[in-house]
Specification:
heterodimer, A: mainly alpha, 2 helices, about 50% helix, about 0% strand, B: about 375 residues, alpha/beta, two-stranded antiparallel ribbon, about 45% helix
């Protein structure tokens, strides 16, 4: 059985690591988007050619390509909380 | 004019990368590269649309709390308060990272087809309907080569693919709003004509990749349209792109401070986003040089960053200085504090100006 204890936040990584971590997150998110977009193309093509009926029951009406509003919603979902941090962090 | 777009249909799958075109630019070399940059574009838009307002609000709260007392604080005083604000720090990181990721992926992707892309530039140099004048031995001023503008690797002059990279980079920078020159066509549609209505000769100074220049030819198809640009790779790209669009535009590599046109040549001159990229002295010289080649009654239209106000918009001032500090815009901050209005009023017989968002337009009649 795993015993969950409070994390020693701020103990291991120096304060200025945050910039680096954020940079890594952006990079990871970009690569994730690459995968999502490619998968969408493949799935759409597979459906259009009758190879598969409906992957994961996702059915797109006209085009299987993402548009900007879908992308922007994706970005907002992942990073949206950052804009609400404001001028103080919780531990300040 | 507002809905007009370039009238050439691009082949769907062709071009130097083998993946066709996005608007008027060659597509990335792979679908993954395109997707990656699509995401970066979205992330940048998030920074601008969501993080900027939150950051400005957070700074305003600190100002309201009395942490900045002056109406016109020094940038050092503003930084002392703004830099430690978490939401602003994250915004700064977002903008800096997206810019770096943008350039590196574009360069990597076009780099996979470098030979074909460079060959296309060479193959179209003598093609028309327009013309190109440039020299591989052009001597650039030191202020221009001192830094890679906007952190673009190799800047605008050192990499033969700088025009390609710049074009795709601005696609991401502007959120895809100019893929088919739409934004430039709209901008050119708003330009005033001289009082006598004569526009026989048009000049675009610092035309970069020639989007506005081609748009001017669309608006005034009978006019002789010229575009001058300092950076060799950009002006070569401008010519190649205009050739592909079958636009009869005459491009030449020239220093804005020292044009080779005769006095009183042009009816209308357009100078967009140049002055903030130059030291003040050279910028003033460029304006006087534009005035020299403008005919009496002709109009010089300047589009550039809004000048600083008093009392200061403290967030805008901080934002501008961020570009100075972290985005290789070494001259922009001095430019916005340079009182351009007074200078133009001394040089021209009549000035009209307007502000839209972060951009000012000055219409200067000689």
């Amino acid at each position: 059985m795993t015993i969950r204890a409070s994390e020693p936040l701020g103990k291991f990584a120096p304060e200025n690591i945050n910039d680096h971590i954020l940079h890594v997150i952006f990079e990871l998110a970009a690569e994730l988007w690459v995968v999502k977009r490619r998968l969408s193309e493949i799935e759409g093509s597979a459906v259009a050619n009758g190879i598969i009926a409906s992957p994961d029951s996702v059915i797109r009406d006209e085009s299987f390509a993402f548009d900007n509003s879908e992308r922007d919603a994706f970005v907002e979902r992942i990073f949206g909380s950052l804009k609400d941090i404001g001028s103080k962090l919780d531990n300040q | 004019m507002a809905n007009q777009t370039s009238n050439v249909t691009m082949p769907k799958k062709s071009g130097p990368t083998g993946r066709g075109y996005i608007g008027t630019m060659a597509a990335m070399s792979s679908f993954d590269d395109e997707s990656y940059l699509d995401f970066i574009e979205g992330l940048r838009m998030f920074a601008l649309r969501s993080m900027n307002p939150s950051s400005a609000k957070a700074l305003q709260e600190e100002i309201s709390a009395g942490r900045i007392k002056s109406e016109n604080p020094s940038i050092a005083e503003t930084q002392t308060v703004a830099d430690p604000i978490p939401v602003i720090g994250i915004r700064n990181r977002l903008l800096h990272s997206t810019q770096g990721l943008n350039w590196s992926r574009i360069l990597d992707s076009y780099g996979k087809n470098r030979e074909a892309l460079e060959q296309e530039l060479t193959d179209t140099e003598k093609d028309g309907p327009g013309t190109l004048r440039w020299s591989p031995n052009f001597v650039y001023p030191e202020y221009f080569t001192a830094i890679p503008y906007h952190r673009q690797p190799g800047s605008y002059h050192a990499d033969p693919l700088a025009g390609h990279v710049y074009h795709y980079g601005t696609k991401v920078f502007h959120g895809g709003s100019n893929d088919k020159d739409e934004a430039k066509i709209q901008r050119i549609a708003l330009l005033p004509e001289p009082e006598d209505g004569v526009v026989n000769k048009f000049l675009d100074i610092a035309c970069a990749i020639g989007s506005a220049t081609v748009a001017a030819k669309l608006r005034w198809p009978r006019a002789e349209v010229h575009g001058v640009e300092l950076a060799g790779p950009l002006v070569r790209y401008a010519h190649m792109r205009a050739t592909r669009l079958k636009s009869e535009v005459h491009f030449s590599q020239q220093l804005a401070e020292n044009l080779d046109f005769a006095d009183n040549t042009f009816d209308l001159i357009y100078m967009s986003t140049l002055l903030h990229e130059m030291p003040l002295t050279e910028g003033r010289t460029a304006v006087r040089e534009a005035k020299r080649v403008l005919r009496p009654g002709g109009i010089l239209v300047i589009n550039d960053m809004v000048q600083a106000t008093k009392p200061l918009n403290i967030w805008s001032d901080y934002d501008r200085y961020f570009d100075h500090r972290f985005n290789n815009e070494p001259y922009a901050y001095n430019y916005v504090h340079s009182n351009l209005d007074s200078f133009l009023a001394e040089e021209f017989s009549a000035i009209e100006s307007a502000i839209e968002g972060k951009t000012s337009t000055w219409m200067c009649t000689k």
